[in-house]
Amino acid sequence: MLSCRIGTEHEKFGFEFGSLRPMKYEQIAELLNNIVERFDWDKIMEGDKIIGLKQGKQSISLEPGGQFELSGAPLETLHQTCAEVNSHLYQVKAVVEEMGIGFLGIGFQPKWAIKDIPIMPKGRYEIMRNYMPKVGTLGLDMMFRTCTVQVRHDDL
């Protein structure tokens, strides 16, 4: 008998309430470390930089411009994925309210120039940032100014 699992990926833009500017990497690192301390996640490191978190089969990762992503576990029902996303948003909100940070789940960020968006400290993102302008005109916009919600459907 074939069984199926559903996973979600939920990305959002983080911003400073006071300036409405993008979060800096240092703020994102503080957010990740606070989630570790309060909600029992494990750190994912690249060198000495925190670049994500893992808890069971779900993870939190950073997209090139600091977009904050929940990569959900493979679950049996849509109701479970909804509960997982709600739990994630609760945890993030509990931490960011104390930091003066907000999140916005929109597909494209039209207000921030690419030069104003910090690049996250992942080696592959620096390679991508240098490569994208050589192969097209909108690659950097895709990297730094987009967010998405995706559904993964796995037949086992």
TrEMBL record:
<dbReference type="InterPro" id="IPR035434">
    <property type="entry name" value="GCL_bact_plant"/>
</dbReference>
<dbReference type="InterPro" id="IPR006336">
    <property type="entry name" value="GCS2"/>
</dbReference>
<dbReference type="GO" id="GO:0006750">
    <property type="term" value="P:glutathione biosynthetic process"/>
</dbReference>
<dbReference type="GO" id="GO:0005524">
    <property type="term" value="F:ATP binding"/>
</dbReference>
<dbReference type="GO" id="GO:0004357">
    <property type="term" value="F:glutamate-cysteine ligase activity"/>
</dbReference>
<keyword id="KW-0547">Nucleotide-binding</keyword>
<protein>
    <recommendedName>
        <fullName>glutamate--cysteine ligase</fullName>
        <ecNumber>6.3.2.2</ecNumber>
    </recommendedName>
</protein>
<keyword id="KW-0067">ATP-binding</keyword>
<keyword id="KW-0436">Ligase</keyword>
<dbReference type="InterPro" id="IPR014746">
    <property type="entry name" value="Gln_synth/guanido_kin_cat_dom"/>
</dbReference>
<dbReference type="Pfam" id="PF04107">
    <property type="entry name" value="GCS2"/>
</dbReference>
